[in-house]
Specification:
Largest sheet: 6 strands, parallel
Structural class: alpha/beta
Number of strands: 9
CATH architecture: Alpha-Beta Barrel
Helix content: 40-55%
CATH superfamily: Metal-dependent hydrolases
Number of domains: 1
Order of helices and strands: EHEHHEEHEHHEHEHEHEHH
Radius of gyration: 17 Å
CATH topology: TIM Barrel
Bound molecules: zinc ion
Number of helices: 11
CATH class: Alpha Beta
């Protein structure tokens, strides 16, 4: 089984703004993907779309026969309204996780507002997936410090440092046992080193499908396949680890 742990569904990009799992799933289905974690997109750059996009993501995932797994988003710096929106998504939709994009959302992670979101996530038993790898507010080390302050909350580096900060991501994963990493961004040599130095039972794979108009799934899967991992390790990253993360 292949579980893609980093995709996006955007209320701005799909026909007539309607949730349509069949059209969205054409590409992952063609590549043999079985499930996908689906993250918001339009709401990350426009706060006024947060509630509506959270509503629609949960609707489109509900209509996908269990293939699409919804994560909500909130803007932590909003304070009380952010906590209320998170509680609405956990209560009404049983959301499976939270996406935070500090850079696009203009939010610093080392703030009391972010601490409150981490506490609610920890109490609800759902992970936080961060965009990471982009200065100056989305660095793996900043998320690492947050993880240290909230040891009961699971946090995911959504890009494992991207092209420039993957060494920092390795260091953070080695220090903080509640940090997981998604292989979605680093180049082939970086992935090799990540696989050698990080706990493979906390590694995930993702494509970023839904962000932009290209189909990145083959390329990102090949970056992993050419590492010549043992079958058991491939199964861990593509299947067993995400199931453990999400209690599937
Ligand atoms: Zn993304």
């Amino acid at each position: 089984m292949i579980i893609d742990c980093h995709t996006h569904w955007s209320m701005d990009q799909w026909p007539q703004n309607k949730p349509d799992p069949e059209t969205w799933w054409d590409v992952p289905g063609r590549h043999g993907i079985d499930h996908a974690i689906v993250l918001p997109l339009a709401a990350l750059t426009d706060d006024t779309k947060l509630q509506l996009e959270n509503d629609r993501i949960h609707q489109v995932c509900r209509e996908s026969n269990g293939r699409m797994i919804p994560f909500c988003s909130v803007k932590p710096s909003q304070g009380d309204p952010a906590v209320a929106e998170l509680q609405r998504c956990t209560g009404k939709f049983h959301t499976r996780g939270i996406k935070i994009h500090p850079w696009l959302q203009g939010t610093c992670v080392n703030t009391s507002h972010m601490d409150r979101i981490c506490e609610v996530a920890g109490d609800s038993g759902i992970p936080l997936l961060f965009h990471d790898g982009t200065p100056c507010v989305s660095l793996p080390s900043q998320i690492g410090l947050l993880a240290r302050r909230h040891p009961k909350t699971t946090m995911i580096l959504g890009h494992l440092g991207l092209m420039e900060h993957w060494r920092e991501a390795i260091s953070v994963m080695r220090k903080e046992s509640n940090i997981w990493g998604c292989l979605c961004g680093p180049h082939v040599a970086a992935i090799k080193e990540i696989l050698q130095r990080c706990d493979r039972s906390r590694l995930l794979w993702g494509s970023d499908y839904g962000f932009g108009n290209v189909d990145p799934i083959d390329y990102r899967l090949d970056l992993l396949k050419i590492q010549n991992l043992k079958h058991g390790d491939m199964e861990k990253i593509l299947d067993h680890n995400p199931k453990r993360l999400l209690s599937l």
